[in-house]
Amino acid sequence: MDHERFMREALMEAEATLDRGDRPIGAVVVYGDKNIGRGSNGFATHRSDISHAELNALLDCAPQLQQHGHERVLYATCEPA
Mean pLDDT, to the nearest integer, of 25-52? Predict the structure, then answer.
């Protein structure tokens, strides 16, 4: 698994988040060598205290998590607090 590649993708999500005025946190969900979900912090833009990058990335690929969810890997630019 190309960890550097997927962390770069999470960092790109974080950069886009910063551009729109949210805290720069990004996340991607990976299955095999494919990015199947992405998300970013949305506290300010969505006016939601639960709009975490990790949660948004998981929601983005929720239908694909039904099967083999334990085989997915989540990359995030910051640990959830």
Answer: 94
